Amino acid sequence: MKGRILDIEILRAVAVLSVLLHHARDNLFPWKMPIVEAFFARFDLWWGVDLFLVISGFVIARELLPRLNASRQPEEYRRITLAFWVRRAFRLLPSAWLWLLLILLACRFLNSSGAFGTLQANLAATLAAVLQFANFRFADSFFRYEYGASFVYWSLSLEEQFYLLLPLLVFISRRWLPLLLATVILVQFFTWRSPLLMVIRTDAIAWGVLLALFSHSGLYRRLEPRLLRQRLLGLALFAGVLLGLMVVSSERFLWSFWRLGAIALLSAMLVWVASYDRHYLAIDGWPRRVLVWVGSRSYAIYLIHIPAFFLTREIWFRVHGSADWGSAFVLPFALTAAVLILLGAELNYRWIESPLRRLGSQVAQRISSRTPSPAPTVPHEAA
């Protein structure tokens, strides 16, 4: 089984860029622009989070489930689980905690514009992120109180909760796991999401895990969408699903109970197509290379983009002398934010993510190598 799937990296890039553009509307450009408002009256881009969740469920389950299912003794199962948690911790926590610290420092020392919010709110948000309940605090804060500049950590807490629970669910359910996942999807599809349920989007994760299970079956190969080898069909499908995501996530479907379920389903379609890694998304040449680069750094970009947006506002507040901004500042703001995000993401990837991912893999290997009977080796991705 292949380790890194480049078409999945492309979807990671699409996911993080959609979230970035969604957040730029109010967090980078705090003034109204008619063309932007016209776009968001018909479309939206926050669905990138759901695409991330499906990808995460697929990649993690694809790596972990074969190992767990091959274990024959409780001690072996425990060590495989511990090794998995160690890899996840080394992969995610150092970068996450670094940017939480930098946000707090910026809030205290680089906040003349007030863009970073109050120190009290950011301290509370940091605590929620470190203790992995940021999604619950985010739901509680809806339209009630200031969350803080690290609000994107709500989805990271949801993923961490998934990482902790998945081995337990596999141990309890075993062969009933597909039925359990299907139930999670169906129940949430027909449920209107309150603020609390909005931040427990386990249906998207369940789709990813189901796809990982499906990828080990013979039916998976028989259902390969080979028609998408025709580039125009691949482009049409990719563009059509993205358009569907943008439409369904718009405000016109705000009160539709099935909205999040449909977004999870459309995201799962993209991950299914990308999982074959046969260029079915029809992205080639330099666009493919750029998107693969963005996808490989999508975690850092996700962590960095909000503080980069706020730092951009702080920089131009100090340059301009006030927050009296308008259309003349669109290009300076966009360029400044782009430089901050790209530079920060690359440095984070090279100096934090990559070295600590390797270290985590070494520690996890030492843990898992002590199992009574080694599980099959499945290359793991930089999820």
Summed up, what is this model?
The chain crosses the membrane at residues 45-65, 89-111, 151-172, 204-220, 232-250, 256-278, 290-310, 330-349. This protein has 383 residues and is mainly α. 72% of the residues lie in helices and 0% in strands.
3D architecture notes:
This protein is mainly alpha-helical and 383 residues long. The chain is built from 16 helices and no strands. Helix 1 packs antiparallel against helix 3 (48-70), helix 1 (6-27) crosses helix 14 and helix 4 packs antiparallel against helix 16 (330-368). It holds the Pfam family Acyl_transf_3. Keywords: Acyltransferase, Membrane, Transferase, Transmembrane, Transmembrane helix. This is Acyltransferase. InterPro entries: Acyl_transf_3_dom, Acyltransferase_3.
Overall morphology: globular
What level of helicity do the residues show? over 70%
List segments where confidence is low: pLDDT < 50 over at least 5 consecutive residues: 373-380
Average pLDDT reading:
94
Pfam families: Acyl_transf_3 (PF01757)
GO biological process, one term: lipopolysaccharide biosynthetic process
Transmembrane segments: 45-65, 89-111, 151-172, 204-220, 232-250, 256-278, 290-310, 330-349
Keywords: Acyltransferase, Membrane, Transferase, Transmembrane, Transmembrane helix
